[in-house]
Design goal:
By secondary structure, this protein is an alpha/beta fold. It has a single domain, classed as BirA Bifunctional Protein, domain 2 (2-Layer Sandwich), CATH 3.30.930. It is built from six helices and ten strands, in the order E-H-E-E-H-E-E-E-H-E-E-E-H-H-E-H. The strands form two sheets. A seven-stranded mixed beta sheet has the order 7-8-9-6-2-1-10, with helices on both faces. Strands 4-3-5 form a three-stranded mixed beta sheet.
Length: about 230
């Protein structure tokens, strides 16, 4: 069983997290790093996937900036989504070779991790045929958007834990006009510690992906050349 290091990093800016993922992925491809699962939350940001339509962002950037919301283009799949405090974001940096080279399977596996994590809190969730993500009844509770290069994964999932759901009104989430979103807090009637939800998710991730999960000391090792310069 392969080892996968996991880390809860707290609040991390979107651009910083994207750069970290890229560095982790390069190191993993070059054999200089083990697989990792990065768990964190972002300041308010709207992200545009490869299939995003600008009209699905319902306000101009000046208005969004006044609301403290930034806009970032990404290379992940999917359309438009919102990230913000109280939302658990997971970025798996995995090598799907040689036995899991199936994008559809990878998406279903991420959904299963989230479904099983929610079940730990007494919440029943599932899939909607033809769509990616996880729903609680008719409301979406988790989004998924991934990127693969040489079968190494970046980006991942976003689970609404204590998320301010009103912020989804700034966009057409995932292209679903009129689609309702929900959160664990709304369904349970109480806020949950994000790190506690992250801790519940880690063993489910390890079980689905057949990884031995161990805590990481840092998000990623520094390349030797950068260490020497520092």
């Amino acid at each position: 069983m392969r080892r996968c290091l996991h880390l809860y990093a707290g609040l991390v800016g979107y651009a910083e997290a994207a750069a970290l993922q890229d560095r982790c992925a390069r190191l993993l491809k070059d054999g200089g790093m083990e697989e990792r699962l990065l768990l964190l939350e972002h300041p308010p940001v709207i992200t545009l996937g490869r299939n995003a339509r600008r009209e699905d962002v319902l306000h101009d950037e000046k208005t969004l900036r006044a609301l403290g919301v930034s806009v970032e283009e990404t290379n992940r799949g999917g359309q438009v989504t919102y990230h913000g405090p109280g939302q658990l974001v997971g970025y798996p940096i995995l090598n799907l070779g040689p036995d899991r080279r199936d994008v559809a399977r990878y998406l279903r596996d991420l959904e299963e991790v989230l479904i099983r994590t929610l079940a730990r809190f007494g919440l029943q969730a599932g899939r909607v045929p033809g769509l990616t993500g996880v729903w609680a009844g008719r409301e979406k509770i988790a989004s998924i958007g991934v990127h693969l290069s040489r079968w190494v994964t970046t980006h991942g999932f976003a689970l609404n834990v204590n998320t301010d759901l009103s912020r989804f009104g700034l966009i057409v989430p995932c292209g679903l006009r009129g689609g309702a979103v929900t959160s664990m807090q709304r369904l349970l009637g109480r806020a949950l510690p994000l790190e506690g939800v992250a801790s519940a998710l880690v063993p489910e991730f390890g079980g689905i992906f057949a990884r031995e999960m161990e805590p990481a000391q840092d998000a990623a090792p520094r390349p030797p050349a950068l260490t020497e310069v520092a």
